[in-house]
Write a sequence for this structure.
């Protein structure tokens, strides 16, 4: 959810149109959460994502739910530490990254989301990296501001992973 | 104050109400609008206002009634089942000519239903609810920004006509986040306490009395006729409609609120396929923009009404257009929200096939 | 001798000089009179807002010269709360019957008392729904015949009457709770003393106050005015004892 908020906030700071829609209502059942983010140059009509251009999945249930929905030519990013499944679609690009392992090496598996965000930013980049770093400073204030640096490093780790050894299928 | 901030709908709408000069909020928890009272409980003390968590929605609306009698800008918010409980109070407030704003973040029904987005309280908001002949101005924003902007209008209209203004939205708008800009901030020190308010005589020569009771039948009929004249004035002056890509349109989707917003994408998809589709979006669902919509009779080959309910908005469309063009309808209930392609498919099936 | 003429009785300034619609022998008029006298004596006319109930006192606002509003059935304490928060320096009282307080408006009265905000409730307990024609109320005594308990109220069929004052006095919120009777000159004087304390509890910002007034309903009790006064003394007081149930520090 935070990854989505950071993207929306960064998009807003760049003067783009954005919407952020959390999983809500009946979708919430089953213990997983998700959010739909739209970043666009023109006013956004429907904020629903029935066919997302990209999906970042953190767990098996979300993999099962969203892998089939990604639009043709789109991108699926999978935390391969937690999700063993492989996507059998050939019409989208899938990136597998052991994000939880990478985050743990950085000190805490909580930063998994930032590693995955790094992957997304290097692959798609609807917003600039510095805008996301700027948004981090808005969300992590007070005591949490000490976490900005490690979050930045986690995002960078995701970017580096794509550059060096991405296990990408597309 | 023209900077954009990323806010959740239910919180942005609360801030919109405060910017519109609302200083009194009474409410009771119910999903999916809890962020509104939560926000009010933090924010009201900062602006010198009062937040009161009531013991029920029934108490909330009657506290609103009391504060409204004092001539202040006051509101409550709730979601469908809670709004049902407020109908008595809304009838009394309407019957005694005092202004207030009520926001309904609609969820699936009937009964306890669920907490997913719906538009199934349309009849309740527009036509019914409490006892007696009364109307409310009903505003239906389709984005967070529009909701924020409409709050200023809501309080102005409530005071101008001394009546209840209802803002109907849904869990989707309440829960989503969008950048929002607070363009207007009403200076509450410039608001004048109306002469009819029950604020204590404090030197006034006569007592003010606010009541919805008139025992004498002829007297109550007179009172009702005055209300009817007021409602006719509102119908003549205050109906609003957004027309989207209608200049060259052969067909129109008619929808309001979040459904209209989703249908805008349907319009774009149709135009990519060469179908000249447009959108008619009532911003006020009461007064219903009847005349504006009727002006399309004879110019369109048909319309599709789309709603998160079963033929409620459609009933007003039927009353407006009768048989003056083919009228299709598509709706989902229980909190299911159709996507743009699903709507396009319904449009093609109902209005294009076999023609 | 003229300089020795002393006014011993006059119409209160806050009384609107109208003939009330109450039945002969009904004690609403006495309760109204006490309210008017106290508003005068405490110089509250300019800052008073009365909140009137659904019940026999539904037209109460017609009889006073201060601002008034007419509430929905049972909701007077909520409406009074809404009025009070907008102008905390004003004096706001709700005038309610037993159907209003003890039945349909039970949630509103309990929570107004629990919040403890300075508001005053005058609660008229006459043991039945007077305006609608004498149906059984939550306060109707066991054995009492009403139009909906034609053979007399039974504990088995209808439960036992609710003692509102004792119940509310259990809460920490209220500053002053008392029960008085309007059956005799001596008790009416005591009733006025209690109401003065209740008004004071609000004016001095101490907290919520309620005075329950045991009242007659000769028409629906099928009694003469004198018999109905006697009935209060003999039957009603036995179940609803008079007295102060809560007196917070500073209430006088």
């Amino acid at each position: 959810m935070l990854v989505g908020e950071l993207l929306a906030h960064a998009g807003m700071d760049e003067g783009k149109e954005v919407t952020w829609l959390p999983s809500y209502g009946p979708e919430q059942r089953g213990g997983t959460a998700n959010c739909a983010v739209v970043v666009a140059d023109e006013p956004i009509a429907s904020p629903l994502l029935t066919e997302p251009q990209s999906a970042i999945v953190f767990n098996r249930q979300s993999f099962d739910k969203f892998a089939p929905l990604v639009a043709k030519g789109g991108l699926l990013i999978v935390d391969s530490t937690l999700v063993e499944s492989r996507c059998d679609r050939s019409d989208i690009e899938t990136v597998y990254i052991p994000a939880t392992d990478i985050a743990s090496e950085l000190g805490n598996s909580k930063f998994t989301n930032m590693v995955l965000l790094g992957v997304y930013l290097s692959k798609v980049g609807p917003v600039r990296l510095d805008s996301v770093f700027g948004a981090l400073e808005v969300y992590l204030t007070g005591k949490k501001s000490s976490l900005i640096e490690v979050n930045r490093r986690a995002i960078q780790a995701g970017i580096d992973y794509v550059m060096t050894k991405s296990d990408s299928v597309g | 104050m023209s900077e954009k901030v990323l806010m959740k709908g239910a919180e942005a709408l609360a801030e919109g109400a405060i910017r519109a000069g609302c200083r009194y909020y009474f409410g009771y928890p119910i999903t999916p609008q809890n962020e509104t009272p939560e926000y009010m409980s933090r924010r009201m003390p900062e602006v010198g206002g009062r937040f009161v968590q009531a013991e029920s929605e029934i108490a909330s609306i009657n506290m609103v009634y009391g504060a409204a009698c004092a001539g202040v800008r006051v509101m409550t918010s709730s979601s469908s089942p809670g709004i049902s409980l407020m109908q008595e109070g809304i009838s009394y407030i309407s019957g005694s000519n005092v202004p207030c704003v009520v926001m309904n973040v609609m969820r699936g029904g009937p009964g306890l239903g669920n907490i997913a987005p719906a538009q199934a309280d349309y009849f309740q908001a527009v036509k019914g609810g409490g006892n007696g002949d009364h109307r409310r101005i009903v505003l239906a924003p389709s984005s967070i920004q529009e909701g924020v902007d409409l709050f200023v209008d809501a309080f102005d209209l409530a005071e101008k006509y001394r009546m209840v203004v209802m803002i109907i939205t849904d869990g989707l708008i309440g829960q989503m986040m969008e950048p929002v800009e607070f363009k207007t901030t009403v200076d509450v020190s410039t608001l004048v306490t109306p002469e009819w308010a029950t604020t204590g005589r404090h030197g006034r020569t006569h007592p003010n009395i606010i009541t919805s009771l008139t025992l004498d039948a002829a007297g109550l009929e007179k009172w009702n006729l005055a209300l009817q004249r007021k409602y006719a004035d509102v119908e003549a002056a205050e109906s609003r409609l957004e027309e989207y890509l209608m200049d060259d349109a052969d067909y129109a989707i008619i929808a309001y609120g979040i459904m209209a917003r989703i249908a805008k994408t349907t319009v774009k998809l149709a135009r990519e396929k060469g179908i000249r589709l447009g959108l008619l979006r009532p911003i006020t669902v009461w007064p219903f923009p009847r005349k504006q919509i009727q002006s399309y009779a004879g110019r369109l080959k048909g319309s599709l009404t789309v709603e998160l309910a079963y033929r409620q908005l459609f009933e007003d469309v039927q009353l407006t257009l009768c048989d003056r063009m083919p009228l299709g309808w598509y709706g989902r209930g229980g909190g299911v929200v159709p996507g743009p392609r699903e709507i396009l498919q319904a449009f093609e099936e109902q209005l294009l096939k076999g023609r | 001798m003229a300089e020795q003429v002393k006014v011993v009785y006059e119409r209160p300034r806050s009384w609107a000089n109208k003939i009330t619609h109450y039945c002969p022998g009904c004690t609403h008029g006495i309760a109204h009179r006490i309210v008017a006298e106290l508003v005068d004596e405490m110089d509250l006319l300019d800052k008073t807002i009365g909140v009137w109930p659904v019940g026999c006192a539904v037209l109460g606002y017609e009889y006073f010269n201060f601002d008034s509003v007419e509430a929905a059935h049972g909701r007077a304490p909520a409406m009074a709360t809404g009025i009070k928060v907008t102008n905390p320096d004003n004096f706001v009282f709700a005038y309610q019957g037993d159907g209003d307080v003890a039945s349909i408006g039970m949630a509103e009265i309990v929570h107004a008392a629990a919040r403890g905000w300075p508001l005053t409730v005058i609660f008229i307990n006459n043991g039945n729904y007077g305006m609608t024609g004498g149906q059984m109320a939550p306060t109707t005594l066991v054995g009492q015949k009403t139009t909906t308990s034609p053979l007399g109220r039974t504990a088995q069929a209808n439960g036992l009457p609710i003692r509102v004052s004792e119940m509310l006095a259990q809460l920490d919120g209220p500053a002053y709770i008392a029960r008085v009777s309007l059956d005799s000159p001596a008790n009416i004087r005591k009733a006025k003393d209690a109401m003065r304390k209740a008004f004071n509890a609000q004016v001095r910002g101490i907290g919520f106050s309620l005075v329950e007034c045991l009242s007659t309903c000769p028409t629906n009790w099928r009694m003469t005015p004198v018999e109905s006064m006697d009935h209060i003394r003999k039957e009603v007081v036995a179940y609803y004892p008079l007295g102060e149930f809560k007196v917070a520090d500073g209430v006088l």
Notes: The CA atoms of residues 75 and 87 of chain C lie 19 Å apart. The two ends of chain C are 38 Å apart (CA to CA).
